[in-house]
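Why should sequence recovery work at all? Because a backbone constrains its sequence more than one might expect. Tight turns favour small or flexible residues, buried strands favour hydrophobic ones, and helices have their own preferences. The token representation captures these environments compactly. In the example below, the structure is given first.
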């Protein structure tokens, strides 16, 4: 009695099992990449809110002239209240406003000569640096997710589900020269 048919069945069962394990692994990896994008986006949003808060604190500190305070407060408010479509523009405007105010001649020296100015500048410098790092990490996560979604297996089998393709967050995040 020949059991060749049983060997053939077991072979195809093993092949199907290995293919299913590979597809499951790819789907899990893609899901982890999407979770990483969402986590990086949350960190970026937190860094942006912290920078806007630091800018508002500087504007309200009475350490600046009224015109600079108004420009900075307006840009920070716009950045905090912008909708998703205008967020990148508002954040870039805040970066430019921070540089315009802080990069004035003798600004840092004048502000640090006053007692409370140094703490505000430290917070602003720290938050501006964190925005640059958070944006870099977010855009890196988006790039990796996009690369993974371009793979033929991901496109042929709908392994991405209904998750939208993540977009890069491009802003002018050059920190002021503090």
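From this structural description, the recovered sequence reads:
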């Amino acid at each position: 009695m020949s059991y060749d048919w049983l060997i053939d069945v077991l072979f195809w069962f093993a092949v199907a099992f290995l293919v299913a394990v590979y597809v499951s692994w790819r789907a899990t990896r893609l899901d982890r990449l999407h979770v990483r994008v969402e986590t990086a986006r949350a960190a970026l949003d937190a860094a942006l809110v912290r920078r806007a808060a630091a800018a508002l604190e500087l504007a309200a500190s009475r350490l600046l002239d009224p015109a600079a305070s108004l420009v900075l407060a307006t840009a920070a408010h716009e950045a905090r209240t912008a909708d998703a479509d205008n967020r990148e523009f508002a954040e870039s405007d805040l970066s430019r406003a921070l540089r315009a105010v802080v990069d004035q001649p003798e600004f840092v020296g004048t502000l640090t000569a006053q007692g409370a100015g140094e703490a505000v500048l430290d917070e602003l410098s720290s938050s501006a640096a964190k925005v640059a790092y958070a944006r870099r990490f977010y855009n890196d996560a988006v790039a990796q997710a996009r690369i993974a979604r371009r793979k033929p297996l991901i496109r042929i089998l709908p392994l991405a589900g209904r998750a939208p393709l993540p977009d890069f967050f491009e802003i002018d995040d050059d920190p002021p020269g503090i």
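A few observations help interpret the result. The mean pLDDT is 87.
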